[in-house]
């Protein structure tokens, strides 16, 4: 049992380090394996989708929000050197969002999610990441989605890492 627990901890540690590396990729950094782009999160209650891809892998962020004005957000997508892991992070670099999200969904195409988390506040200006409660969102095979009636309407960051369907011969 201890061996299985150590294996789980080692895998979880690897995934967390992978997320952290891709969460802090500079906007200027660009290669075949990583991409970070800016986009506007727009209030008004209308459903919007923003997507980015690397080769055959894609991350889509779908949301609706209310209040305030447009906010600048970033999306980073990355593919591990061995093409086995695809990551997607969506966040507001200034920290906490002032918009109220009525819904959100992140979807990875071409990868099965192995780790995901969502945050109401991003580490910025001396503040720490504040994760959403587990009951506020659901992680599926390829999606991370808000839970109706349980989601607190606060979202500032969402991260997902999926195992690609890439197999070596």
Notes on the protein architecture:
- Residues 1-30 have low confidence and may be disordered.
- The chain is mainly beta.
- The N and C termini lie far apart (32 Å).
- A hairpin with a 5-residue loop joins strand 4 and strand 5 (85-91).
- Helix content is 13%, strand content 47%.
- The chain is built from 1 helix and 11 strands.
- The longest helix has 22 residues, at 2-23.
Short description:
The protein is mainly beta.
Tell me how many strands there are: 11
> What order do the helices and strands follow?
HEEEEEEEEEEE
Termini, distance in Å? 32 Å
How much β-strand is present in the residues? over 45%
Quote the average pLDDT.
85
Structural class: mainly beta
Number of helices: 1
The coarse overall form would be globular
Oligomer: single chain
- Which ranges are low-confidence, i.e. pLDDT below 50, for 5 or more consecutive residues? 1-30
**What is the makeup of the main sheet?**
6 strands, antiparallel
Task: Output the strand order for the largest sheet.
Answer: 1-4-5-11-7-8
Q: Which radius of gyration do the C-alpha atoms yield?
A: 16 Å
Topology:
Elements: H1 2-23, E1 34-41, E2 48-54, E3 57-66, E4 71-79, E5 85-91, E6 100-109, E7 111-121, E8 130-131, E9 137-139, E10 143-146, E11 157-164
Antiparallel strand pairs: 1-4, 2-3, 3-6, 4-5, 5-11, 6-10, 7-8, 7-11, 9-10
List keywords for this structure.
single chain, 169 residues, mainly beta, six-stranded antiparallel beta sheet, five-stranded antiparallel beta sheet, 1 helix
